[in-house]
Amino acid sequence: MADSDIERLIQLLARLPGLGPRSARRAALHLVKRREALLEPLARALADAAENIRTCSVCGNLDVRDPCAVCADPRRDDSVICVVEEVADMWALERTASFRGRYHVLGGTLSALDGVGPDDLNIPGLIARVKGGAVTEVILATNATVDGQTTAHYIAERLAGLGVKVSGLAHGVPVGGELDYLDEGTLSAALKARRPV
Ligand SMILES: [Zn+2]
Fold it and tell me: Which pLDDT value is given to residue 154?
C-alpha cells in the first residue's frame, strides 16, 4: 500500500463522527495490520452497503429493501405513526421492542439558524400518510432540544384538523434514575409532567 493510500484512508476515517485525526491514524494502522481479518471484510461490507442500502420511500428508514422491513411487516399497527428525527432514533426505539406501530423519519429538525425549513424535512410525506386514512394517532418523538420541540410544535399545528390524536413522549426521571444524577432540564420536565400517585 502506497503512502498516499494510507493517507487517503486516514483522511476518510477522520471524517467519521467521533474519530479525530489521531484516532483515525490508529484505526487505519489497525486495519492495515489485520488485512485478512478486518481490512478486506470491512472493504467488502462497505461496498455491499454502498450498493444495497437504500432509503425507504414510505418512512425514511435505511434498509436493503424499499419499503423497509418495518413498513412491509403486516403484523404492525397501521393506526399509529411515531415521528423521529433520525434513523438512529427509530432504531433506538425499535431496540426497546415496546412499539408495534409504524415510523416516520424526518431527516433532521427545523432550524432557523441552519436554514432548515419544513420542505427540507420529510414533513409533506408525513401529512400525506396521515391523510391516507388508516392513522388515528401520531406520536411526536423528536428530541427534547429547542429545535426538536419547535419541530414537534410545527408538526402538531400541521396535523390539527386532520382528525388524528397527537401525542408527545413523556420526559422524566429514567427508570432506576437517582435525582441527584439528573440534569436540570430532565428534572424540571419530570416535575412539570408530575402525575397523581
Ligand atoms: Zn419504511
Answer: 96
- pLDDT of 2 reads 57
Question: What residues pack around ion ligand 1 (CB closer than 5 A)?
Answer: 56, 58-59, 61, 67-68, 71
CA 64, CA 53: separation in Å to the nearest integer? 4
Query: Across residues 92-109, what is the average pLDDT?
Result: 93
Could you give the angle at which helices 146-159 and 123-131 cross, rounded to 10 degrees? 30
pLDDT of residue 167: 93
Place of cell 411515531: 82
Place of cell 484505526: 27
Q: Give residue 52 CA to ligand 1 midpoint distance, Å.
A: 15
Q: Which three cell numbers stand for residue 24?
A: 483515525
pLDDT score of 1: 54
Distance 16 CA to ligand 1 centre (A): 25
Q: Say how far apart CA 159 and CA 83 lie, in whole Å.
A: 12
